[in-house]
UniProtKB/TrEMBL annotation, chain A:
InterPro entries reported for this sequence: Acyl-CoA_Oxase/DH_mid-dom_sf, AcylCo_DH-like_C, AcylCo_DH/oxidase_C, AcylCoA_DH/ox_N, AcylCoA_DH/ox_N_sf, AcylCoA_DH/oxidase_NM_dom_sf
Lineage, uppermost ranks: Bacteria, Pseudomonadati, Pseudomonadota, Alphaproteobacteria, Sphingomonadales
Keyword Flavoprotein: yes
Protein name per its UniProtKB record: Acyl-CoA dehydrogenase
Listed cofactors: FAD
Domain of life: Bacteria
Protein family: Belongs to the acyl-CoA dehydrogenase family.
UniProtKB/TrEMBL annotation, chain B:
Keywords assigned by UniProt, alphabetized: FAD, Flavoprotein, Oxidoreductase
Sequence ranges assigned to domain Acyl-CoA oxidase/dehydrogenase middle in this UniProt record: 135-228
Protein name according to UniProt: Acyl-CoA dehydrogenase
InterPro entries noted in UniProt: Acyl-CoA_Oxase/DH_mid-dom (IPR006091), Acyl-CoA_Oxase/DH_mid-dom_sf (IPR046373), AcylCo_DH-like_C (IPR036250), AcylCo_DH/oxidase_C (IPR009075), AcylCoA_DH/ox_N (IPR013786), AcylCoA_DH/ox_N_sf (IPR037069), AcylCoA_DH/oxidase_NM_dom_sf (IPR009100), Mycobact_Acyl-CoA_DH (IPR052161)
Amino acid sequence: MAILNEEQEMLRDMARNWTTSESPVAAWRKVRSEKPVEGYSPDAWKTMAEMGWAGIVIPEPFGGSEFGWLSAGLVVEELGKTLTASPLVATTLAASAIVLGGSDEQKGKWLPKLASGERVGTLAFDEGPRHDGRYSAKVEGGKLTGTKAFVHEAHGATLFVVAAADGLYLVEKGDGVSLSDRKLTDQRSHAEVTFNGAAAEKLTGGGDTLLDDVLDRARILTAAEMLGMAQQVFDVTLDYLKQRVQFNQVLASFQALQHRMADLFGDLAMMRSAVEGGLEALDSGFGIARAATVAKAEANRVLHTMSREGIQLHGGIGMTDEYDVGFYLKRARVLEASWGSTSYLRNRFATLAGY
Amino acid sequence: MATLAEPQAASTDDAFREEVRAFIEKNFPPELKGKGNALASVEGPTQEGPAEKAWREAMGARGWGVPTWPKEYGGGGLTRKQAHILNEEMAKAGAYNPIGGMGVMMFGPTLLEYGSEEQKREHIPPIARGEIRWCQGYSEPNAGSDLANLQTFAEDKGDHYLVNGQKTWTSGGQWADKCFAIVRTDRSDKHNGISFMLIDMKDPGVEVRPIQMISGMSPFCETFFTDVKVPKKNLVGKEGQGWTIGKRLLQHERTNLSGGGSMARLMGNALSDIAKKYLETDENGELADKVMRDRIADFEIRWQSFLLTAKRAVEESKAAGGVSEISSVLKKLGTKLGQERAELLIEIQGLQGLGWEGEGFSDSELSGVRAWLFGKATTIYGGSTEIQNNIIAKRVLGMLDHQ
């Protein structure tokens, strides 16, 4: 765990207390069965917004607290632990695109609404099942046309940050914007979003690297959610091994299992360092592209292994819907495929390093 | 209060930085720029020319080779912040720390914690001045991973102990002046029958035989003790406390063996830079063998996160004021990654990377082969990976023994 300041410790403790008491995995089960349109509990989102979480990376003049990315990551990590469904990551990323690329007018118009939770934003980038950085959506005369596949939190969003062939655009939900469900294995909100001559406003600031800069934030914040998930799978698996008795011994006493847990513990340490390194790079402004690539690649690698081992080490009971561990496997694969698969990220790392 | 104190603290730091700069300017021989500290490894004796000697003595006199050790025993007495400034300024000037070795990395910190006043006054200053080499008398032929099974026996003879037995894998034993050893003083109790004592390697009855390794090098020795007299004043802590003291020393050892910093220096250039010299590149300057490129990226990403983990462990242990529990994790991960890198390097170079001797191979190719072979020891010594896994599982994760 990074060394935190007092403010960050308070924020993390607040998030941890809230998720533990108000939003445990049972809350996700409830969302899953009640199927609210947004894909999350509107009441829970309202509470999160009241606690100021939506404005953590938004500057103070625009209604945020500007606590920084490490702080945002701490909250997202806690949400990941209990699989809390919310548009916090998506809204934070949409806000960051406006912070980086918006005009003063755009910032003044949108950021306070995103910070207060009144508006939910999301990124509409990929056009196929793989994140590949190719965008064919077009804007002519201020009207956007194109289809975006698998948009996270699309159902609750009323503001889309859309990647078009020539840059990023803001599009409001309304005329020319239509959604069709693309339910994935994690059962969170994902949809195909079609823009058919929707009114679009370009983000003209942020320079040539705006799109990559936003994606790097997506990679790092997603990795923070994955870190919370990996930590939780590790913790519940360890608890389970300490309780389950076979051959008159608790499973935790078997060396074969001890060594596998030691391996996972080492992997988890690496993942935490990589994710915190990414968040700290965002706060310092240095080496972001490389740190983001390392953070998401490590998150992919470690959560992949952790979620698979979590099931195996639970044995048959890990295969049941009654046990939580399977939820993490399903969510893990969705996040693993988002904003860059492992091979995509290795390719990017090598390209950034010039080989 | 804070606003008043801060500028003062800053100016004190600035003054210290100036002091360091002036010291380096005056004492660091420019011809040594970019060199490394030969004393820091257990490789053979290195010729110490007049320039190296002058630099070592200047740093030793100041205590800055062991900057945070107490001044009264010859250390620098610096705060961590000041030690950091010292490191920064040395790096800027291309200066290395000429003080090192097992005395600095393992024995010194342990003796500072457990030694008597008299012992500290006798043994710490020569370490701080880089005058004495220490070796480690831990492993025995039947006490490797089961370290507490040791049989070297120290018999109480009133004013001294009479030591008989055999140690093995004594790193740098053939060049060491003294040995910190764990020996048995009571045969009836496996763990509480162990004591920690200091043995002079030049005493009668000490015999050292280097062991040739698969790498062709002999950095490890067998050490035989036959009726070696060890004065009572060389017992550290109480009789029977050796296991506790010895384990503490192992924590320092693990931290150093994994050491992100030293490992990074050891590894030198990025694997990708080397690969570009040996493998074909395409029109974009990228490695044409995309499978190899992917594997190198996979390694370098994990290596990055290991370095971040080592950095994090340092920060956390500073904040907690002690050796981090993560030291076992670092040892386990760092040595594994080091081995992986050596294997990848050999693969990148093909048969050219497997040269043993003679013409046709560069120095770095030849040393790469030795390093690859020697590197196999890293997951065995200093507590094997399996032992680190046991430590992590039991001490850190609280997984229990069979009931």
